[in-house]
Amino acid sequence: MIALFKSIPTGQRYSETLQATVIEELATIKGLGSAQKIPGSVSGALINAINAIDLDWRVPFPKPVIEKSGKSTTVKFDGIAWVTSIGIDGAVETSLNLDNGVPALVKGFNPGWPLASYRLDYKGSLTDYADITFYFGGRDFGKDLSSMRLYQWDGEIYRDITTIVDLPNKIIKGRTDKLSTFVIMSRVDEGKYVKVPEIKPNLTLPDPRKRGAG
Fold first, then answer.
1. Residue 214 lies in a domain
2. Which residue, among 120, 109, 106, has the nearest Cα to 176 in the 3D structure?
3. Structural domain containing residue 18
4. Residue pLDDT, tens place only, 7-51
5. Domain check: are 26 and 77 in the same one?
6. Looking at the structure, do residues 121 and 183 belong to the same domain, yes or no?
7. Cys-Cys link to 188, which of 5, 32, 116, 192 (CB 3.0-4.6 A)?
8. H/E segment holding residue 85
9. Segment 43-68, tens digit of pLDDT
């Protein structure tokens, strides 16, 4: 398994530091074999690494976009997100990052797999508000999508900013007066948890170099 994680190329989320961490954790397991159960202390690092690899494989990092001043301006991020700013002062730069993991897990809510936070950075002045849209296709939120919601993280708590959920097109919209970190979640029945890959010594992982192949 160590050889497997060494063979996966590093990326924006599966960084060299994360790669080194998971390899170091695996090296602590004596006699790692195909039938051996992975200890819980190590499986956490494995899930973090697998999540990062999956995100690198599924979603590239969009380039920042410069907006000109105007009453209403829409910025598009490679089919991942759309930001319509209402009232901007001067030229501003907007960037989107899909970060590995989420700021906090909430009991009764499913943040999907792979876990991802949509971090929108805004260099400039937003004088009114912004309507934001995210495409959530390609991520697994379970079978019941009827309770999908868009939450904004303020550093301490989540705030529900959802305005529209379009399930046929797999998009969700919200309105905010500040661009920060956003997480898509759905309510789940008690006893159901986030679906993550089963950790086995002989697991296979997606190769980011083969994104879109097949």
1. no
2. 120
3. 2-59+197-206
4. 898 988 899 999 999 888 888 876 655 545 665 556 788 888 999
5. no
6. yes
7. 192
8. strand 81-100
9. 788 888 999 998 888 877 777 776 66
